[in-house]
Amino acid sequence: MFSAAMSYYGGPMQSHALSAFDLRHSLSSYNKTSRHVFSCKARSLTQFSCGGSSADQEIVIAMGSNVGDRVSTFDRALQMMKSSGVNISRHACLYETAPAYVTDQPRFLNSAVRGTTKLGPHELLKKLKEIEKDIGRTGGIRYGPRPIDLDILLYRNSQIDSETLIVPHERIHERPFVLAPLIDLLGTACDDGIETSWHSFSKCSGGFFESWNKLGGESVIGTEGIKRVLPVGNRLLDWCKRTLVMGILNVTPDSFSDGGKFQQVGAAISQAKLLISEGADIIDIGAQSTRPFAKRLSPKEELDRLIPVLDEITKIPEIEGKLLSVDTFYAEVATEAVKRGVHMINDVSGGQLDPRILKVAAELGVPYIVMHMRGDPSTMQCEKNLQYGDVCKEVASELYTQVREAELSGIPLWRIVLDPGIGFSKNCGRCIEVINGLESIRSEMGKMSIGASHVPILLGPSRKSFLREICNRANPVDLDAATVTAVTIGILKGANIVRVHNAGFCADGAKVYDALLKGKRLEN
């Protein structure tokens, strides 16, 4: 790991990582022995440099768009790349950026993907140009508006210099909108040989991390120049701007806090209106209890409860401008809910209970909340599932495994939200450790994927049993004040979305935090 990476997480990193000296020594040795340089200006060309390869080659492709439906264009480009011989394994976050060079044009969306291909570099370039043309890109002014821009940033451990292709991309080092997504595709642990080779192409001894920090690094994210965004509904959500409140609406007879209260459509609608009036940004509708030892419903039973309520909620004027989420682990339920107006999927199992939901979420193109849980609601609190060494490290590792499955199923990282699963496979002490350790969870994720460490974190401590144990209160409704405290500490530690029963108390707590500690202006 590089010393430049320290600023990501606020201090020195773990001892097993590379020091700055180790990095420079590693890069120096690598430069002398391992780098492949191909010049295609000469008449004598190698098969690898300008033709195909029998082996999979690691690549990074940058994406940009500022014309038309930018998010849909990215989705289409991803599918076309996959159909053209590019196996996408990792995605960067999504960035909305100010135009560079030619400033009188719309704002861009930028990201990048990492993957493998058997295509040679010039074959790959040809395929990308064909994709750009198919999507609608035509000739225009340099750096001007374009529906799609696909650039090869890195190809294997190679330098390529030809009349049509230069790799690494020659302007990586001066462009925050390129470096930020590229950094997302790396890990701070730097134990990957290909990543070491890529860092060796940087003009800095600390690799691309140092290049990024020289441009301002994380301090520039959230400025007018570059913002990390979550595409949801018809908007781009700047989830770093303020804390978002997700109000819980359980239409179940057996949820631990409010089971039976909102089963009737009228009662559910009244509760939704109350949550919205109190400041909820998102209404999360659940038709199946996931409390410990809850009986599992079939998809049909869940839909029978959900659909009547969902259909009515989408009609109320108060829902305008708000987001709807469905709390389900079933692919069938998620599909039907999104068809009827839901904007995001909240899966407590992170794809473990119905693996089909990953492909479904990818096809639906909506944000997907991946929660940490071991087992299922009937087994999650058994002794085996409560055993941890370093709980934050293990939660991060297990969550990252789920993120990788989601990405490989076609869900881009820019549509993923993480939930560490308070109260799921965790006792009171472990819940406290996880809330206090959200920064540590991000740091651990960053060792494997910096992009994964940057996605939104949802925290759901509301009225959970660990609060009852701390406060010695039997009635969950009496835990709202304790919930506000847990939520506020969670926001302080890095939560971006809080999932709560009492939206009023927690929305006020979030606003005060945002105003006092984030320095954000109160919204009217």
**Gross morphology:** globular
Main beta sheet strand tally, sense and closure: 8 strands, parallel
Mean pLDDT comes to 88
What radius of gyration results from the CA coordinates? 24 Å
Q: Calculate the terminal CA-CA distance, rounded to whole Å.
A: 44 Å
Low-confidence blocks of residues = 1-34, 38-49
Instruction: Please report which band the strand proportion falls in: under 5%, 5-15%, 15-25%, 25-35%, 35-45% or over 45%.
Output: 15-25%
- Give the number of helices: 19
The chain-level structural class is alpha/beta
InterPro entries: DHP_synth-like, DHP_synth_dom, Dihydropteroate_synth-like_sf, Hppk, Hppk_sf, Pterin-binding_dom
Protein name: Pterin-binding domain-containing protein
GO molecular function: 2-amino-4-hydroxy-6-hydroxymethyldihydropteridine diphosphokinase activity; ATP binding; dihydropteroate synthase activity; kinase activity; metal ion binding
Catalytic activity: 6-hydroxymethyl-7,8-dihydropterin + ATP = (7,8-dihydropterin-6-yl)methyl diphosphate + AMP + H(+); (7,8-dihydropterin-6-yl)methyl diphosphate + 4-aminobenzoate = 7,8-dihydropteroate + diphosphate
